[in-house]
Specification:
Blueprint (H helix, E strand, L loop, with lengths): L4 H13 L3 E6 L2 H14 L3 E5 L4 E2 L4 H7 L3 E5 L3 E2 L1 H6 L4 E4 L11 E3 L12 H9 L3 H10 L7 H7 L11 H7 L1 H11 L5 H11 L5 H5 L4 H22 L8 E5 L8 H11 L4 E8 L2 E7 L5 H8 L5 E5 L3 E7 L3 H15 L1
Parallel strand pairs: 1-2, 1-4, 3-5, 4-6, 6-7, 8-9
Antiparallel strand pairs: 9-10, 10-12, 11-12
Helix pairs in contact: 1-5, 2-5, 2-6, 5-6, 6-9, 8-9, 9-12, 14-15
Bound molecules: manganese (II) ion.
Length: 344
């Protein structure tokens, strides 16, 4: 089970030995927290967040040349190009928790290699390595909807940020102050690259969460202000969602507002747990949809709703994607309403 203790110690040793590590991390809150934990431990090197998703591609060789690191640490990226790895002439460590892949010329650590059900976030393993900055570790874990086993330590140290033990990660995300910290980490990753970089740099120097949440330092205040700006935009989008009595909730947004899709579907799912959510935008004459439901079998209903409709789609039990020709979209929604109505 898990990433083995000897592997955790190996990574810690490599980090301690490195004088100029380069961290390449996913541009979400789990990736960011993983980087912050490791960087704040070694206090050396550089961090670069990876925008190409899901793969870390050869295009980042440029960054490697720019920083001449003696160690590369890849965090929370599901895919890394083999060509990229082959061209690196220095040790590479890759920690991830997505579906395991096979690559050469890299030390690859993934809890799912030993137990496919163990998909604890990258942040969780980074905390095992550094054993410090509990508040960043907890934030990164709940960002990936995981309540870590060290949450009781966190509650002891920060009772006002997490006053009781929750079983449901969604409640932690939307009802607590540590949830607000997650929102902040998430939102400051959006926007102009130069601003995101500046915000991350500040985060490497923040001493405690109250600097941000209670604005007790000028740096914390700056981060909170940046966050409030994105938050306002987001709240605007959220306020446009008009639920009806119908169990199918359709929300259409314009293409230039793509950056909040994941956040919107998560929060709508939390607010409307009994509904089937269809979040979509139009592109090239098609409706690109993300379908989510907390309780309903989305995959099988999607299959049914696609009958006599020009389109395709598929995915998981509670989350799917679909693409529907625009003229057929009303029919698709109608089919879905019928299926949902008949299900219970
Ligand atoms: Mn992750």
């Amino acid at each position: 089970m898990a990433i083995k203790q000897e592997d955790i110690e190996y990574i810690r040793e490599q980090l301690s030995k490195s004088v100029n590590p380069l961290f390449l991390f996913d541009d979400d809150a789990d990736g960011l927290c993983s980087f912050l934990l490791l960087y704040r431990y070694v206090r050396e090197g550089h961090g670069v967040f990876i925008k190409t998703s899901p793969e870390l591609s050869e295009m980042y060789l440029e960054k490697v040349n720019e920083y001449s690191p003696d160690l590369i640490v890849i965090l929370d990226k599901p895919q890394v190009s083999q060509v990229f790895l082959d061209k690196l002439k220095i040790p590479v460590i890759w920690i991830d928790h997505h579906v395991p892949v096979k690559r050469h010329n890299v030390k690859y650590f993934n809890p799912r290699l030993n137990d496919d059900l163990d998909n604890r976030p990258t942040t969780y393993w980074c905390y095992k390595i550094v054993q410090q900055d509990l508040w960043i570790a907890t934030t990164g874990c709940i960002a990936d909807w995981h309540i870590p086993d060290f949450v009781t330590d966190f509650m002891k140290e920060y009772p006002d940020l997490l006053p009781k033990k929750y079983d449901d990660p969604a409640k932690v995300l939307f009802e607590t102050r540590i949830g607000e910290l997650y929102q902040l980490f998430n939102f400051i990753l959006k926007g102009k690259t130069s601003e995101v970089k500046a915000a991350i740099k500040i985060l490497t120097r923040i001493n405690d969460p109250y600097e941000i949440l209670d604005k007790t330092s000028s740096q914390g205040k700056y981060l909170y202000k940046k966050y409030s700006k994105s938050k306002k935009e987001y709240e605007q989008l959220l306020s446009e969602v008009m639920p009806t009595d119908d169990k199918v909730l359709v929300y259409e947004y314009s293409a230039d507002r793509t950056s909040y899709t994941a956040e919107l579907s998560n929060e709508l799912l939390y607010k409307y747990p009994t509904k089937m959510l269809i979040i979509c935008r139009e592109k090239s004459g098609e409706m690109r949809c993300s379908l989510r439901s907390k309780n309903m079998d989305v995959a099988s209903k999607l299959k049914g709703a696609l009958i006599d409709v020009r389109g395709y789609g598929g995915g998981h039990l509670h989350a799917c994607g679909a693409c529907i020709k625009k003229p057929d979209f009303p029919k698709f929604v109608e089919n879905m309403k019928e299926l949902v109505k008949n299900s219970k």
